Amino acid sequence: MLLLLAVGLLIGSILVLCVKKNLESLLLVGLCLSLTVYFVGLMVFIAKKGGLSQEVMNFLFFNQKIRIWVQYRFITLGQLGYIVALGRYLFPLFLLEMAFQYSMLSALRKAPLVRKLVLVLPIVSLVLYYPSVYRSLVMKVAAAKDVLVQFSYIWVMCYVVLAVGLLVVEYCSTTMHFSRRKFLPIVISLVALATLYVIYCGQDPGQIYRFYSYDYTWIKGVGYLQFALSIGGYMVLVAVNLVCGILGLGSMLRYTQTSFASDRDEVVLERKFDVARTGASVFVHSIKNQLLANRVLYKRIRAELQKEEPDLDKVRGYSDSLCDNNELLIDRSEELYRTVKAKSVRLVPVTLGRLEEITLDRFRKKYPDGRVRALMDREIQVLADENYLSEALYNLLTNAWEATIGYEETRPVELVSHQERLYTVLEVKDHGPGIKTGEFKHIFEPFYSSKNSNFNWGMGLYHVRTIVRSHLGSLRVENRPEGGASFFILLPRYGTIQPRQGGKKHDTHFGRRGL
User: Fold this and answer.
1) Would you list the domain boundaries of the chain?
2) Which end of the chain is more exposed for a tag (fewer CB within 10 A), N or C?
3) Which residues have a Cβ under 8 Å from the Cβ of 367 and sit 6 or more positions away?
4) Minimal CA–CA distance to 92: which of 236, 195, 220?
């Protein structure tokens, strides 16, 4: 059972590597491979040694035939012991390296030498526990056996505790809800694997090398599972193994599914936009509707002017409506053109204060009475093209305001900055009804809009997403528990300027009633 769980975890980690070809995925494969090797060695040793109750044996091997088949496979004690040593000493190394990779502590990020130094103890242990080296050392130095047992167990446990501690600290240091939700399955998976490992890591591979030596029986029992436990105790041990293994496998598969879905969505969006680029049926339909509305206004103006005494106030009203329609048509056409055309961005250091000024200035021109509250760390810099990034923020603010005024008029929309580990996050909050569950998969698609298609062509959020990706960032959206939706622009953190003490930010707001 344990071996099947380990193999399942290994397969899951390989799936992760196929989807996300990065260092974290490679370390995860190494972690699961070392655990699988460890359990292979343990199961072979337990099958050959025996001495366990029938219930435990059935749990480990399913039935007697499988155990007997494993028991009579030929393998030397030296080979078997070193298989166990490989799993025992490589697992904590991969676990700690993964914790280093996920940790955003500045002290670790600025000290890459630490990641190299942690290789020393596993390498030294694997050299000392090589069968010929181990036997020679133990025969020449009487105390070497006990020293190796204590030395290896101490550093193995220190690595595991340090790794789990770094993962917990990283999770607790993450303040944004969606970031914590994304990181939690990873923490659960790694802690579950570490728990599964700790249950069996107390025994020393030397116990296998010196299986027929009496002096090893007193260290931690005769066998790897030979504790002074009742049948009930063994059942608890079995339950812990099952829970940890299944929890680790389930968390890993969910993480794989999330990663695969994210990459698949990118491909789908690109294909949909290629179709939209060539077809442009929505564009033609919207142009036609706008032109038909203009024709109606033109006929009314002409009919009024043909009267003996035309009503000039009506003519002016029709003329103003015609002008507004034309301006709207031009704005929508320019929006579509900016999205479709091939463009490049020029990334330079820009302060959040500068982005705030440009964004709010654009917003005021469209909605003079709109209410916005900006809570920004104005001195923080990001690498950005200020024109494009402010345009993305402007699009999000206008969407947020339109959602808010259609739902309530008492609260302003918010533009907030966060320093989230390695990211500078710009959040736009609205106080509208939120996003319907069925719309989450479609809101970033080109030409998709839940609003009136005559006035909203559905290119805004796709345009925002394109801009953010050109800044090496990502765009996220979620509904808030208290109501409304939040859009997050995650940009790679730039520079070392820290937010003001106490988390204070520059508070800017405008609108017809203030705050």
Assistant:
1) 2-264, 280-342, 343-510
2) C
3) 398, 401
4) 195
